[in-house]
Amino acid sequence: MEMENLSNPYFIEKLTTIEVKKRSINELLKAMANTAYQGRALGEVYSIIVDMIEDPDVVIFMGLAGSMSTAGMWKIVKWLIDNRYIDVLVSTGANISEDIYEAMGFSYYKGSPYVDDSELLKYKIDRFYDVFASEIAYRKMEDLIKEFICMLPNGSVYSTAEFLYLFGKYLTNRNIDSIISAAYRVKIPVFSPALVDSGYGIAAILASRDSNHRVALDMVRDFDQLIEIGRRAVKMAAIYIGGGVPKDYINLVTVAQTLLAEKEGLKDYYKSLEYVVQITMDSPQWGGLSGATLEEAVSWGKVAPKAKKRVVYVDATIALPLIVHAIYEENIKRRNTPDFGWFFEHLEQSDFKQF
Fold first, then answer.
1. How far apart are CA 81 and CA 85, in angstroms?
2. pTM of the model
3. What are the residue ranges spanned by the domains of the chain?
4. Which residues are registered as beta bridge partners of 241?
5. The pLDDT of residue 289
6. Smallest Cα–Cα separation from 184: which of 200, 151, 203, 161?
7. Which residues are catalytic?
8. CA-to-CA distance for 206 and 202, rounded, in angstroms?
9. Helices within 192-282 (DSSP H only)
10. Mean pLDDT (whole number) for 255-272
């Protein structure tokens, strides 16, 4: 049998054809990492996530975009928080409100995109592609947020992380088990730079118009707090579910480290992400941040040149359950987790005990 020229410098690692046999999910992902295309990418993403979990010096950020909670993914994110596989969550407002909808006891239903949406409107049914929800129940979720806002001091100012920490406490005391109540219990910060672009915004307007009760979100303070977390971290890592604002909010933490260092007289200082993965369906050729490659991010100092990095182009509702169940199977544990007691200490003073 004729053999290939093994002296060729491009023939470094053999592709391994998958054979059908009984195996666990983590074994399958590891096997896929030795194949090709997005199967290889998915396997490599899993491997990098394992590496970041096992690094004792890393702070792991998660950027959560898309409509994941309505798609049945929110308990996966909550499990990652409960078990401290992530240290900081940056989310859209939708993902941390639409999980509350279900946590309150309401249900999402299997639907279809091939319906008469004017009929859904008549029956007050909201559609998320192939998922249906009750508009009446959705309003009750917004009313719950409004009720919380009206318990805060009128005219008070918070970062989104502070606001969501207090709301997590409020939900915990009402036995509503959601992403932010889990984050409150394990004391990790949740940021939502576009929080009002969700049921939170509607709730805030209702509180203002109906009860003349207002709170304000200070986004500069919010970003400053996130940057301080990055400053205190030994290393930084990121898991991006989708792209959007959560992805760039985390990315800019690294850029800020460079600019702040220059103010202190340090030139060409970079504190970039050392591990980073992204699960996305967005592509780079349109120039947007959601699809921007991790290689492009190196040019900004957002991702370290030698970082362990990989993008997999696949629906997150496929990739995320596989990756997390593989972590569960392998029983991978964090060796160390950052303590954010300094971050929340001022929120545990007497003024906030009513929650």
1. 6
2. 0.96
3. 47-107+134-332
4. 64, 279
5. 92
6. 161
7. 302
8. 6
9. 199-211, 219-232, 244-263
10. 95
